Amino acid sequence: MYFSKSKALLGFFLLSCLCVGALFIRTAEVPFATNNYNSADIAWMLTATALVLLMTPGLAFFYGGMVNKKNVLSTMLQSFIAMAIITVLWVILGFSCSFGNSFFGIYGNPLTFFMGKGLISGAPMAAAPTIPLLLFAMYQLKFAIITPALITGAVAGRIRFTGYIIFLILFCLFIYCPLAHATWHPNGILAKLGVLDFAGGTVVHMSAGWAALAAALYLKKKNEEPLTHARITYVLLGTGLLWFGWFGFNAGSAFSANSLATIALATTTIASGAAAFTWILCDTMRGKKPGAMGVCIGAVVGLVAITPAAGYISLPHSLIIGVVSSIVSNWLVQVRTRTGIDDTLDVFPCHGVGGMVGMMLTAVFANKNINPSVVNNGLLFGETKLFFAHCIALIVVSVFAFFGTHVLLRITNFISPLGVSEEEEIIGLDKFQHGESL
Known about the structure:
It contains 15 helices and 2 strands. With 438 residues, the chain is an all-alpha fold.
C-alpha cells in the first residue's frame, strides 16, 4: 500500500513530537507596539492572504479537470495536501529559512523564527512596515503552498502519494526557501543584484516550471494511453478561482492598500485578458476551433507572465507581456508535443516559460515613474543594468531549480519510490492509491 500503517504511525509520531516540543516553547508574546500599522493595509492584506490561498483549490480544479477521469481525485488531492503540509513546515522552519537572518544572501537562519518564535511580537518587515509581521508571514505562506503544487501537473497520474509528500517537504526547504530569501530578503543575493520580482515570477513560476521539467524527465512515461480531459467545466471553474485569487497574489504584493496595488491589479487584468484572447487566435491560425481549454490556458499564462512585472510597468506594456507570453508558450506547447517529454499538463511551457518571459520583459519595461523603488529603469528606457542583472538571474535560477530538483527527486526515490508501476497507472491512482473514484 502507498500509505501503509507503519508510515501513518511514523507520521503521527513525528507530529506528536512536534506538539510535545511546542509545549516547552514558553513565550509571553504580545503584539509589537507600533504607530506605523495602518488599518486599511491590514484589512487589505488579510483579504489578499485569503485570495492567494483560494488559488490552490483553484489549481486543484484546473489540473483535475485536465487529467483522465481515473486520476482526478489524486491530482486534486496533491494540491490540497500541500495546504496542510507546507503550513506546518512553514511555521516550524519555512518562514525562517526564507526570511530569517541571512546566511550569505542565499538562506535564512532556521532559528530566527523557529516554531513561530517572535512572529506575534516581532517588528514588521522592512518591505511591509504597516502590517504585522505575523500577517506578512501568513501571506508568504500561501506562495510557498502553491509553488510545489504547480509541479504536480507535469507528473499527474504517475507519482506515488508517499513520495510526493517527501518531495514536497524537500522542495520547499531546499529550492523554494533559498529562492525566496535570495530574491525577497533585503540581504538576498538576487535582491542586492537588483533583480525585480514583484510577486513571484522567479521564485514561484520559474522554480515550479523547471522543477516540473526535471520531474517529467525523471518519471518517464510508462503508459501510452491518450490524455482525455475529465471535466472541462472543472478547468473553467479552476481558471476563475485562479484569476480571482491572482489579484491577491499580485496586488497584495504591494503590501498596502495604495495606488501601487491598484496598478498591479490593473496590469494583471489586462495581461491575462490579452493572453487568453491571443491563445485562441494562435489555435485558430493552426486550424483548431476556439475552445474553452485554450481560453483558460491562455489566461493562466498571462497571469504567470505579468506576476514579476505587475507593480513595475505601465498598462500598455502589460498588454504586450500578455500577448508575447501567450504566443511563446502556445508555440512551445506544440513543440513539446513533438518530443518524448511527458510534461502531462505542460507546466514547463506555460508556467516555467511564462515566468521567464515575464521576468525578462520586466527588465525591458520596468519604470521608476510607476514604482519609485525601481533603482534602474528597463531596457526600453535606455538603461542596461537591470536587463543584465535579469539575464544573470535567469541562468542562475534555471540551473539551480532544474538540477537541484533532480537531486531532490533522486533523494526522494531513495527514501520512498516515486514512480508507479504500469499496471497501477492503467488502473488509475484514484482507486489504487486512495480507494476512491469520481
